Amino acid sequence: MSSSATPRSGIEPGIDTLDIPTADIDADRLLGRIEAFARIGRDAGGGITREGFSGADLDARALLMREARAASLVPSVDAAGNILIRRAQAGPAPVDRKVLLIGSHLDTVVNAGRLDGAYGVLAALEVLQVLAESGTDLPHEPVAIAFANEEGALFPQPFWGSMALAGRLAELPADPCDHSGQPLRGPLARAGGDLDALKTAVWPTESVAAYLELHIEQGPVLERAGTRIGVVDAITGRTVLTVDVTGASGHAGTTPMDHRRDAMAAAARMVSAVERVAKDDALCRVATVGRLEAHPNSPNTIAGSARLTVDLRDTDPGRLEHVEAAVREALRTIAGQTGTQVEFVAATRSSPVATAPALRAAIARSAEELGLAHQTLPSGAGHDAQMVADIAPIGMIFVPSIGGVSHVPEEDTSPADLLSGARVLLRTALRV
Ligand SMILES: [Zn+2]
Q1: Which fold, 237-350?
Q2: Based on the number of CB atoms within 10 Å of its own CB, is 356 exposed (0-12), middle (13-18) or buried (19 or more)?
Q3: Helix axis angle, 27-38 relative to 55-70, nearest 10°?
Q4: What is the distance in A from the centroid of ligand 1 to the CA of 48?
Q5: How high is the mean pLDDT of the chain?
Q6: How far is the CA of 116 from the centre of ligand 1 (A)?
Q7: Cα 159 to middle of ligand 1, angstroms
Q8: What is the Å distance from ligand 1's center to 136 Cα?
Q9: Interval between CA 130 and ligand 1 midpoint (Å)
Q10: How many Cβ atoms sit within 10 Å of the Cβ of residue 358?
Q11: Do domains 27-235+352-431 and 237-350 have the same CATH topology?
């Protein structure tokens, strides 16, 4: 790759051509590691089940530490269970040297694909190894990180590790347990963490110069456009409402239609109303009812009550607020028309998070130098980066997902795109 390409028009001033001699990533090594990690937690369904702090996750973590040591890098585990990989220090580290943090997560959901998370961690390891082997020094200390329990599939606290690092300890459960009631304390200790020392996992705001995360897109945008690199401008905000609909149960054969207060029928209209706010009214980017439970859920009984969840996402906080109000009003109206009552029993909101313009420009410039078409797009999924954004500027690089699918065994990205993403990550790291 050329390091002397002339800047093209449209490039932000200040984003110069790289004049540092750059070593390239080792393609076989990176793809080989991705394959090796894809064998950890392989389930009967052909996917990967490597829930955070499960046995498979501990195996993957151990392999990452071995790979780092074999590369003459220095791995360590913080109290939250995050794995940090640094270059060996020849002398004492300069006190005021900030960190360039690069990473993602190793844990997966149930029956997942091999790339969500692991790709970003292994690319970060590759970048660190290339920098070390080529003796390249950066203004900031590059540190690779595998965040613990990003998915929250077993212990239901997603972003566990990145929230701890960002200092959001008050939002974490004091004594987390998995879905079967088993406490996290033991598995966390086996992973090298310490629930009683979580405070020590918090990083000061001024300590991180930038955080970079390379990830598969998990959607169809790049593939449809034929673009190789996605420059993420924002990670979507999300509002999740839990809604209870109360009607009256009754005999499905004897209750006349004009005497019914059917919670299921009301809920069905609510599902359609939620779809409409995004699809027809374009009040937010996407809106989903992913869960609907009816009671008593019997084929010959009118449902007396129903519970549904409403998931609203957008990168604009104002639009999120507006669509939530619109959904609440629409559901109340439907309740009024169907003789049911609607109650909003819970609401969780996460704000949209913007990436840093300078990092966006650095990613775009790096893609251009490599001759890779790029485009700006939002992330519809959550990522550790949105937590790290509390304490540092963040940048995110996406590569295309074949068929736009993720969280399924079919999740895939072409080897060429995997390598391109890692090369963009390396060049961006050199620029920061
Ligand atoms: Zn992920």
Answers
A1: Alpha-Beta Plaits (3.30.70)
A2: middle
A3: 160
A4: 13
A5: 93
A6: 5
A7: 10
A8: 29
A9: 24
A10: 16
A11: no
- Looking at residue 361, its pLDDT comes to 98
Domain ranges of the chain: 27-235+352-431, 237-350
Q: Give residues whose Cβ lies within 5 Å of ion ligand 1.
A: 116-117
Residues 6+ apart with CB under 8 A from 155: 51, 52, 53, 149, 176, 177, 178, 184, 187
Tell me the CA–centroid distance for residue 105 and ligand 1, in Å.
6
Q: In the CATH scheme, what is the code of domain 27-235+352-431?
A: 3.40.630.10
What is the distance in A from the centroid of ligand 1 to the CA of 161? 13
Token pair for residue 153? 């599939």
How many Å lie between the centroid of ligand 1 and the Cα of residue 289? 22
Q: Which residues pair with 145 in a beta bridge?
A: 84, 103
CA distance 184 to 193: 10
Residue 117 CA, ligand 1 centroid: distance in Å = 4
pLDDT tens-place string over residues 338-371: 999 999 998 888 889 999 999 999 999 999 999 9
SS3 of 421, please?
helix
- What is the per-residue pLDDT for 297? 96
Question: Distance, CA 258 to ligand 1 centroid (Å)?
Answer: 49
- Measured in angstroms, how far is the CA atom of residue 178 from the centroid of ligand 1? 20
pLDDT digits (tens, 9 = 90+) for 34-68: 999 999 999 988 999 999 999 999 999 999 999 99
Cα(107) to ligand 1 centroid in Å equals: 8
> How far does residue 215's CA lie from ligand 1's centre (Å)?
7
CA-CA distances (angstroms) from residue 162 to 189, 211, 218, 353? 18, 11, 20, 14
Look-up of token digits 């984003």 = 15
Ligand 1 center to 155 CA (angstroms): 16
Q: Positive or negative CA dihedral for 176, 174, 238, 215?
A: negative
Give tens-digit pLDDT for 360-404: 999 999 999 999 999 999 999 999 999 999 999 999 999 999 999
**Which residues, in sequence order, are CB contacts of 276 under 8 Å at separation 6+?**
330
